[in-house]
Amino acid sequence: MKKYKGVIFFDLDGTLLNKQSKISENNLKLLTQLEEQNYLTVIASGRSPIEIEEITKGTAIHSYVSLNGQYVVIEGEVFANHQIEKQLMADVLAFAGNLGHPVACYTPFDYRINFIDEATEKLYELDNAPLPEIDPNFHQNADINMLYLFSEKVKNDRLLQERFDETLTFYRDSPFSMAIVNKNRSKKAGIEELLQRLELLDETNTYAFGDGNNDISMFEVVTHAIAMGNANEQVKEAATFITYDHESDGIEFALKQLNIL
């Protein structure tokens, strides 16, 4: 495998993407410059591989830590594939159903939901993405990497976390949704797997850009943790550098301030 000068991890929503869920022309230019400087650029996101590959089509990015660390690809090759046990999924769907919350089931390249409610519609509108197809039995016949629960009732988060504390990890990543993965899986865990595989010319040249609560864990495993200006205060407190927001060329500002470009 090629030896890189360093590796830079990018969250997508609220970080690399603009409000239209696209990579801006300026950020596309930056990705090309980073490739020319021998940096490996990696997406670290709760989104699925099918979404990531569509978003990054035509860019220099061919590596990603997806589904909150459950599925890792390095230079186009699958390196880690963590799945949720089927009976455990059935228990989550039943418990969430009793609370009135729909759950989507994600494989790397497909996803389905058991039913759709208002929170579901709000989330996919926010992400500028189409609603998933309805299939209550999808989890029975597919290998699922991540569950995605839709709810605006934050008080119910605690009920789910207490019920499945020993087996699952929960990330509320929007006012309308919560990602669910195997216990102790995270962007951090996926990044650790990726970094163990890479041979870096300088191991201190590790960087991560993020804005959400599920980005805090990845800040723990890089030397330089950059919070976007639009990040919440908890994320900013965990960062080593705070840049401008994702609509104000915050990535470019940070790369220049950190003497990468």
From TrEMBL:
What's a Pfam family in this record? Hydrolase_3
UniProt-listed InterPro entries: Cof, HAD-like_sf, HAD-SF_hydro_IIB, HAD_sf
Name of this protein:
Cof-type HAD-IIB family hydrolase
The top of its lineage is: Bacteria, Bacillati, Bacillota, Bacilli, Lactobacillales
